[in-house]
């Protein structure tokens, strides 16, 4: 088979890495890819939103399967464009990707089908939002309706912060057109966990649980980011929690989308919060998480190509989805200043230290080649240093050991990824 992966981040590197292990795959292309992906796949200079060029490339090169990693092209309708030309593609169609593309849509869906989530109101007029916030209980959560690179969520401790947030999202358009509509949500307290799942339109099969670290700085301080690290499994996602979520959240979501005439095929990422009143949905994503993919895919035993094709063909019931009993931790190495402003173009040293080391991986997120052919930093999140271990403590120790194997000017990372493990174990 010839496979095309669409995207350029750490998630896409993990997908390419997993696809490269399939005995069914002869050749992998990635558009546009990055310096790390280039070791496993032929990178193609086509951007993820250039649908016509991607379709032409897939037809010209007889691509057998395209896997779309990123949210923007999915929400924009890349799957529809490929299907219109008779091409096999893994991911939800545009009318299903709205599950991530509009927070207002997903909240309304949950309300209609009684899927547990936070109470909310939706606004298109900033004046109406301000009026509502004058008498609200605090803290409260403001969410830009559309895609905002994982950063369009503001937790406001008081009315003053909330009014500033309305100005940022709806008037100053800090997140662009994503802020044309805004969801105001009750603040929930509890442990946040991530559960990614494969879906074939009818059936949902969940992957191993994971837990993200969104804030930029140690101690969960600082601004929200796309994710500074992750671990899998999370000990807080117990068998009892799983049974509840399967019954009241996972399958009901898939059934609701089908009932709305929007059958979902691909990956649904369930962002959950474990409250005193039970698990609730914080958000949906319509694709693999980043860096969740980096800790879940190394633990997946199944051939990713088999699973993707089963989702496309509606035969997921024939897949016995299995994950190893080990644990995995990913520490993101970022450019200092992320997520606000940072410099790029610094040479990265020590990448060869990962070669031949079983159970240690370095997934490239924001890297490129300079004119000398050196691998250099090319983004806010640069690398995902990832390691396996027999349990979470060992995996974390291995990941932080590997953090020292690689270096670049401006390197920044959190020192407490997986700190919740210690709390759990007392």
Task: Quickly describe the structure.
The protein has 426 residues and is α+β, with helices and mostly antiparallel strands. Helices cover 30% and strands 28% of the residues. The longest helix has 21 residues.
What are the key terms here?
single chain; 426 residues; alpha+beta; Rossmann fold; Dna Ligase, domain 1; D-amino Acid Aminotransferase, Chain A, domain 1; nine-stranded antiparallel sheet; 13 helices; 30% helix; globular
Topology:
Layout lengths: L1 E6 L2 H11 L6 E6 L9 E2 L7 H10 L4 E4 L2 H6 L1 H7 L4 E2 L3 H8 L1 H10 L7 E4 L2 H9 L5 E5 L8 E4 L2 H13 L10 E5 L4 E10 L3 E9 L2 E3 L3 E4 L4 E4 L6 H21 L5 E11 L2 E8 L6 H5 L7 H10 L13 E9 L24 E5 L2 E3 L5 E3 L3 E9 L2 H12 L7 E2 L6 H6 L2
Parallel strand pairs: 1-2, 1-4, 2-3, 4-5
Antiparallel strand pairs: 6-9, 7-8, 7-9, 10-11, 10-15, 11-14, 12-13, 14-17, 15-16, 17-21, 17-22, 18-21, 19-20
Helix pairs in contact: 7-8
């Amino acid at each position: 088979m010839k496979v095309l992966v669409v995207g350029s981040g750490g998630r896409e590197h993990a997908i390419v890495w997993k696809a490269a292990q399939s005995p069914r795959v002869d050749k992998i292309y990635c558009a546009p890819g990055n310096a790390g992906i280039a070791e496993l796949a032929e990178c193609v200079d086509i951007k993820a939103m250039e649908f016509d060029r991607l379709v032409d490339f897939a037809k010209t090169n007889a691509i057998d399967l395209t896997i779309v990693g990123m949210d923007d092209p999915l929400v924009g309708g890349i799957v529809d464009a490929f299907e219109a030309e008779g091409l096999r593609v893994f991911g939800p169609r545009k009318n299903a990707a709205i599950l991530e593309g509009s927070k207002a849509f997903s909240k309304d869906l949950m309300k209609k089908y009684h899927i547990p989530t936070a109470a909310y109101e939706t606004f298109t007029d900033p004046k109406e939002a301000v009026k509502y916030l004058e008498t609200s209980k605090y803290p409260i959560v403001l969410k830009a309706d559309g895609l905002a690179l994982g950063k369009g969520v503001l937790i406001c401790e008081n009315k003053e912060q909330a009014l500033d947030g309305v100005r940022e999202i709806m008037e100053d358009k800090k997140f662009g057109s994503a802020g044309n509509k805004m969801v105001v949500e009750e603040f929930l307290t509890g442990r946040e966990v991530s559960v990614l799942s494969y879906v074939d339109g009818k059936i949902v099969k969940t992957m191993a649980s994971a837990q993200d670290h969104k804030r930029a700085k140690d101690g969960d301080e600082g601004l929200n980011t796309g994710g500074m690290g992750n671990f899998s499994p999370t000990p807080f996602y117990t068998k009892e929690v799983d049974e509840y979520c399967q019954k009241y959240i996972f399958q009901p979501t898939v059934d609701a989308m089908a009932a709305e005439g929007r059958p979902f095929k691909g990956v649904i990422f369930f962002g959950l919060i474990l409250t005193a009143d039970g698990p609730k949905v914080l958000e949906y994503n319509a694709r693999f998480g980043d860096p969740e993919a980096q800790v879940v895919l190394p633990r997946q035993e199944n051939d990713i190509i088999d699973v993707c094709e089963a989702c496309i063909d509606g035969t997921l019931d024939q897949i016995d989805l299995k994950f190893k009993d080990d644990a995995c931790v990913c520490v993101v190495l970022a450019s200092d200043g992320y997520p606000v402003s940072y410099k790029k173009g610094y040479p990265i040293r020590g990448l060869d230290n990962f070669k031949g080391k079983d159970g240690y991986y370095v997934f490239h997120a924001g890297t490129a080649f300079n004119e000398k052919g050196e691998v250099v930093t090319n983004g806010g999140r640069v690398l995902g240093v990832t390691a396996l271990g027999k349990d979470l403590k060992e995996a974390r120790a291995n990941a932080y050991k590997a953090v020292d194997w690689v270096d670049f000017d401006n390197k920044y990372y959190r020192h407490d990824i997986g700190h919740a493990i210690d709390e759990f174990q007392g």
